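Input record (Table S2, row 622):
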Amino acid sequence: MSLLERIDGPRDLKALPAAQLPALADEIRAFLVDQVSRTGGHLGPNLGVVELTIALHRVFDSPTDTVVFDTGHQSYVHKLLTGRRDFSALRKQGGMSGYPSRAESPHDVVENSHASTSLSWAHGIAAGRVVRGERNRHTVAVIGDGALTGGMAWEAINNIAAEDDLPLVLVVNDNERSYAPTRGGLADHLATLRTTRGYERFLDWGKRNVSRTPVVGGAMYETLHGVKKGIKDIVAPQGMFEDLGLKYIGPVDGHDEPALEAALRKARAFGGPVLVHVLTQKGRGYDPAITDEADQFHAVGVINPETGLPLEIAGRSWTDEFAETMVALGEERRDVVAITAAMMMPVGLQPFCDRFPERTFDVGIAEQHAMTMAAGLAFSGLHPVVAVYATFLNRAFDQLLMDCALHRAGVTVVLDRSGVTGPDGASHHGMWDMTISGVVPGLHLAAPRDGQQVARAVRAAVAIDDAPSVVRFPKGTVAEPIEAVRTVGGVDVLAEPDADAVDVLLVGVGSMAATALTAAEKLTAEGHRVRVVDPVWALPVPDEVVTLARAAGRVAVVEDNVVVGGIGSQVTQALRDAGLDQPVDVFGLPKRFLEHASRGQVLDAAQLTPDAVATRLRDRLA
Ligand SMILES: Cc1ncc(C[n+]2csc(CCOP(=O)(O)OP(=O)(O)O)c2C)c(N)n1
Ligand SMILES: CC(=O)[C@@H](O)[C@H](O)COP(=O)(O)O
Ligand SMILES: [Mg+2]
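Output record (1-deoxy-D-xylulose-5-phosphate complex):
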């Protein structure tokens, strides 16, 4: 039986002799590469936290103590050490989540994969423990250097640093990267602290080798201590965290398990808030990850474990369409600039950045800053394109509303991964963006139905200079081109019944246009008269949709957004405002958090497939 098989929880881990921990770490790494190469997932981040997670679960007593992982993508080792070894269905329907999951384990707390929240969670948990007289229960937050660039983290630090005796440990997992190398003033400061590695080792050496020397030991140690102070003031002035009033321990070698345990025990014993700065390597122990320039295997698909090479060939993506359009626009318009929130490559801005580095801004995991900085860039006479995943627009709603829309800023927001993403589960589906956008005065939103429409929409969006514009498209392979049979104003008619009177005006939004078309074909074959349209610009609702609705017995809208406040709601309102009372059926995503599964499985469960839409419409036409 392997060491890993003997561990069903932290108690078994604590019982392991320390001498066996390196072998356990090796087993865990081998397990991660073997398993995640089959399922896909966050291989690099988890390979980097093997020793750290072992030390955490040997020093602290989960679930009496609580360990919170920021973003949660690096919690696979935590899952292994808390009795979950079946990774065969990782991130698949019915299988283990790729993030912590309370349904899976009492050791899991934060399921939200939006970054920079862990310190706030941990502050609340720790403060709550004190109020409840449970000061003996410790709380630990593990936050990456990337997540530490998020504003929420600093709201929390501002509060935590003012606490005196809170049993709270903040572990900064510093691997110098988000996807790409972490940049900015904070990253520079962490680098300064890292360079004091010698200083810490010098101090430890002094404690081990000098202070016990007979006779001169004590005096010598005091001298060294003074020298240490001097060195520290020269090499590493009081760090920012200490300046803020936080006790700082580190930097600690994040792959030296005994050193980690020593630092964490020291932090646990300290009793007050304390920050432990841990240096790790993303992809540690797996050369294909370590040497991967792009993102050190931040997230991989199915790969060959020997070579790390992908075994799935991805087709041309929606993101590729956007990436190409941006480079072309960059050539044509010198005022177009781009902003990413630490996801240059995933959102498709890398080619633009390579071509126009001086017109590209990577603000770190800081969507709020990105959005308001964009308002500033627009004010200065440029046209910014903010590219984020749709789910992360949630973070920057107020900035979109109050900094961009209130000031009529010509800012374009491009939302990748809109609609159903799939394996990343509830906090990664981009299913609220059209509801959010729908309440922003003056905002224009386009949902391209295929690759050609992406270019058309982005070009039209950057031509809007007096209001925010949004272009949103899903994850993965781009849809095949869908030609319009005719246009009515800006609205594309995709299918026409051979009659003037129409039973149903079926509005397909974005990638759901294809779904609507196929559903219409089924209904038309049964004798129903269905007109299918793509509004192209879904917000504000085009007048032509209202005009076309006048000739229809009922209207139906298909959208991969939550039904509440989505395009269907907006169309309903537009019809009612125009005095039309046809029934409107809205086929969208339920107001529920949708578990991880494949994109197709989630859409199927939401009845957003052609068959389901046709069936539901058929019932209404009966
Ligand atoms: C608000 C938000 N924006 C963007 C992301 C996408 N994202 C997931 S992990 C990650 C990088 C995290 O870097 P770090 O915190 O350093 O963790 P590491 O992967 O290095 O362990 C990003 C940008 C996110 N999860 N949340
Ligand atoms: C946690 C994290 O990294 C997410 O942002 C997610 O994994 C992105 O996945 P995709 O880029 O594959 O949609
Ligand atoms: Mg990092």
